[in-house]
Amino acid sequence: MNSKRYKDALYDAPMVWDLKEMLERSASLYAHKAIYLYKNNPSEAYKPILYKDFYEMTGALGQAFIDLGYKGKKIAVLGENRYEWVMTYMATVNGSSIIVPIDRELSASEAAGLMIRSGASALVYSEKSAKLALGAVDELVSAGSKIDTYSMDVDLPILLERGRKSIAQGKTDFRDVRIDREATCSIIFTSGTTGMAKGVMLSHKNIISNVIAMSEFVNVKGMTALSVLPMHHTYEFTCLIMTTMYQQCTVAFCDGFKYLTKNLAEAKVDVMIAVPLIFEKMYKRLMKTIRDSGKESTFSKALAVSKKTGAGKTFIAKKIFKDVHEALGGHVKLFIAGGAPIDPQIIEDLNAIGIPMIQGYGMTENSPIIAVNKDRYSKAAAAGLPLPGMIVEISNPDVDGIGEVIVKGSCVMNGYYMDPDATADSIVDGWLHTGDLGKFDEDGFLFLTGRKKNVIVTKNGKNIFPEEVEYYLLKSPFIEEAVVHGIDEDGYDTVVSAQIFPHYSAVRLALGISESEWDISDLSKHEGGIHKLIKSAVDDANGQAPSYKRIKRFTVRDTEFPKTTTQKIKRHEVI
Known about the structure:
It contains 19 helices and 26 strands.
């Protein structure tokens, strides 16, 4: 179902005042429904946590935090995706304290630095992250700071019992907290090195406004979702964890990317959000399986017919592409991509197969979603339509309508923590300046063209968007990852250069090299063949671009690009 008649249609999304009211409402309406499915190791079966039990535990932990004197203070949380992480978050923010999520992929010194900068009084961590957590605490002590620590596995059960006893004795401190929805409840540190990371201050109003607005565009009510991305990031936390709680869904926690398709089937997953890299890897695996089975020609013909006839919108697609549906668990109703641009062909192909897919766009500073495609009206290449209640404009558009995307509305952050200068640079007269370049089409869809700071400007004034060039490179089966940037050539001109990480398994097969002859740690003896294949791919990409956008120089990498935990390439480290 994808029709223009739904352009102005919105789903009913009841108003709730804050995250506390949201949880109370869902727990009262769906007390005996599972809010989470969890397991302690991949070999186990999923076990449920009911809405009523999660609500009770959150209340008990929140009361314990208040008893310990943390009301109004900051509590850091560090660990893998699990319901105790969410419980810590909700017990903190619904008790008028401030949560500080910490990326568990940081070094101990980086994690310590963020806790010092935020002024956290306590740290809740998982045993799987204990080495990092306790290493960070040692760094804190060395720096002359102090922080209380609580293990999710050892100490939280004790805190829960403490909270329950307090409640049984008549204490109602947590229950009676009245939320100031405008006040900061969460400090989210943006991706990047610790020195560059900014603490984004979000309020209940910011987050719940984003949740409600998204729910007017996308309806997943009652579905089962798979949590794949790290929860310290707003994309996963607001869009999946909070929105599914608001829409009374069940969330299963993924055991890790290598178990993704297994988990999709085990939990009978209906919906999943992820970054493009994850969907692209899934898509490439599917295509490889189809090629290896010898059914590529049949599949391609069926896909073409489905695109032409619109069969992907009907039950027929599920029969025609039965093997693909079963490979993805057999229950998927919606995939949502975000966090970076995705190849529209993947969206178009999956839609034709009968697996609806849309994409959205946002940034942490907007809680995070700015625009998203509707589940009933979308365009594969578009970032989406601006969310209800959001004012999105293009600042200083050029002759092609391209300019910086700026945003105003209730989702815009309170500012950067302890950084008024950066806040003033980012929010001007109430407008959040995203740093992203884009334009609107005649139907009001937002299309992104690149990052303002990434734009390559040639000596004759031409603007080149690296993301556009990368898009054509990544269409090659021999290229896994690419970063395009400009280099000055003898002071004469700025030319387009690319760093490329090949899809080495595809390269090996194309060169006819056996696995026994292939040593990924020493590819020097195959260097000529690899370079020839990549040059051919670069030439193909150049053939689709005007002369000034063509790649003049390229290098081939032996290793993947460094990435953030949300799988974004750290461009600043490689350019």
